[in-house]
Amino acid sequence: MTKLDDDARRLAELGYSQELDRSWSGFSNFAISFSIISILAGTFTTFGQAWNNGGPIAISWGWPIISAFILIIGFCLAELVSAYPTAGGIYWWAAKLGRPVHGWFTGWLNLIGLIAVTASVDYGCATFLNITLSRFIDTWDPTLTRAFILFAVILALHALINIFSHRLISVLQNVSVWWHVLGVAVVIAILVFGPEKHQSLEFVFTGTNNNSGFSDGMFWIYILPLGFLLTQYTITGFDACAHVSEETRGAARSAARGLWQSIFYSAIGGWVLLLAFLFAATDVDAVNDPASPGFVGNIFTSALTPTLATVVFGISAIGQFFCGMSCVTSMSRMTYAFARDGAIPGWRLWSKVDRNRTPVNAIIAGCVVALLITLPALYEAPNKAPVAFYAVVSMAVIGLYLAFLIPIWLRLRMGDRFTPGPWTLGRKYKALCWIAVVEIAVVSIYFVMPFSPQGIPGHPEFTWTAVNYAPLAVGAVLLGIGLWWALSARTWFAGPRRTIDQTPEDEPEPVA
């Protein structure tokens, strides 16, 4: 029996027929998570969050420390995808390891996070493309309105690519990996050899900065942790390895391996890239420019020639375009899988695949919602920081990591009753799962907090454009799905639905 037959048989044991096209290699599976993590996206677009909230130490020390915690989370999820390689991913795991209510909340949190990731990546891509165009076209003014229009165009392009180039997607994922590897290498080389001078080791590893507006007395307990959003946001979306596992050959091993490896290699490459940023940040006043405080582009324009700065902007914009394409793929597969089990209103429409085995309706719906939740980005915050963008980023981090927490906790609770797949943590699962649970809980608290004093209700300079609306959006959704569950869904939602009949000898052993 071929490996493809083994994959289809395992999927049947989990209750599903092979509807999606299983044509992805193990490398393509790794590539989609590596592309979604995209150090050419997250490190560029959220560099300012760390610079303004902590400065160099939030980056030089914060990145490797937080990356280590995220890798532990990745190990925990890799064990689960090895046991249950389905497109539903973490939602399916939560429902099977716990009860339908666990799957219900996990699925909605995961879906919110994936849509927010898609929105934030494509808006970041639009921002950098907006700047790049202004460097080529003298009359091009990179306004917020033009950035939003570009954002809408990029979202539409990603939807069209995912709809009409379904067989090309896995190839483009592979191209994306090499673009990120070679692109990062080129950017680092430019930042090493382009500037006339560099910062000292002391500045890079001990320097601090506070552009948050909060007092320095809050630096260690509040301001610096807010800077860690850079790492926590950049290294996320790696659950994509699970969402495309039904399209991956040898998924029980290759999806697990792709998940943790995408984190590991991104952590190393991202740290080197960020150190290159810091060493090139010789004009601190320029980086702290009140018109765009902490914006990474200020480093390039102050330390490099106009031509080299434009090259860096262009490399990043293209990398972010690849990243957004991968985000739409992952988001649409999660939508398809969740709808397949009847959890989304109009589920028959969103779980439908076309003749090319592509969930077209799920792709369109996710992109439309991503556009809508980013509408506040049309309005500028008083301190010029992209607060609306960071709010969408926070929504992505909170939604995804809370969704990760639920199945990790359930696996920890299940203990030795859990039946692992070929990739397993063995006895180390207890320590690693506990670390993952605590880290996610702490992160989720910090990233719903205000980013500036002006965003705190009751402050003399309070304004809605400075509000971190992530807790409002996530809270509203949690309240909504909680009430929905209590008033209705608990009577009809039973978790994953079987779409295939099996003979008794094919039935898997019960997990719990």
UniProtKB/TrEMBL annotation:
Keywords on record: Membrane, Transmembrane, Transmembrane helix, Transport
Entry GO CC: membrane
Membrane topology qualifier: Multi-pass membrane protein
InterPro entries for this protein: AA/rel_permease1
TM annotation in the entry: 30-51, 63-87, 108-131, 143-165, 177-194, 219-242, 263-282, 302-324, 360-379, 385-410, 431-449, 469-487
One matching Pfam family: AA_permease_2
Localization (cell): Membrane
Domain of life (superkingdom): Bacteria
Molecular function (Gene Ontology), one example: transmembrane transporter activity
Keyword Transport carried by entry: yes
PANTHER family listed in its UniProt record: AMINO-ACID PERMEASE BAT1, OS04G0435100 PROTEIN
Name of this protein: Amino acid permease
